[in-house]
Amino acid sequence: MSDPTPVSSPPHSVPKPPPQRSEPDSALPQRPEAEETPETQRPVHVWMHRLSVFLFVLVSAVAGVLLIILPWTPEWTDNYLLLSFPALRSVVSNGFFRGICSGLGLLDIWIGFWEALHYHEQQ
Fold first, then answer.
1. Domain assignment of residue 92, given as a range
2. Whether residue 118 has pLDDT greater than 70
3. What's the start-to-end Cα distance of the chain, in Å?
4. What are φ and ψ of residue 111, in 5° steps?
5. Which residues, including other chains, have CB under 8 Å from residue 64's CB and lie 6 or more apart?
6. Which of 45, 90, 105, 116 meets the CB 3.0–4.6 Å disulfide criterion with 68?
7. Would you tell me how many other CB atoms lie within 10 Å of the CB of residue 62?
8. Is residue 46 part of a domain?
9. pLDDT tens sequence across 69-111
10. CA 4 to chain centre
11. Could you tell me if residue 122 is inside a domain?
């Protein structure tokens, strides 16, 4: 059983392009005529992006301040959730663990303000 088609084409021949179809394939989605590019963004998209950056900075700042201050208050260890777990309470009340939480709070504030300072709108 041999295949009559050649395995490779001769070096001097040029491959033929595939035949063109006269009608488009209906299974494929059609490309829209006018695509929205970054240059033609609508004002709604610009304001939504601004609002999302503002909310990200706000949430980062609030969470960071809470993570800096809360571990050093009495509510950190004297809460209802930790009263039934004395081993976890001793871990949470450790100064090293509190310092890690405060460090994460500083990092969170830094990330939020870095995002605010490096914000730019696409022209």
1. 41-117
2. yes
3. 64
4. -60, -40
5. 105, 106, 107, 108, 109, 110, 112
6. 105
7. 13
8. yes
9. 999 999 998 888 888 888 999 999 999 999 999 999 999 999 9
10. 54
11. no
- 19 or 52: whose pLDDT is higher? 52
Give 3-29 pLDDT, tens digit per residue.
565 555 566 666 666 666 666 555 666
Kindly state the tokens that stand for 45: 């998209």
Residue with more model confidence, 61 or 82? 61
As a whole number of angstroms, the distance between CA 52 and CA 103 comes to: 25
Number of domains in the chain: 1
Cα separation, 17 vs 112, in Å, equals 54
Which residue shows structure tokens 């909310």?
Answer: 55
Residues in Cβ contact with 117 at an 8 Å cutoff, skipping those fewer than 6 apart: none
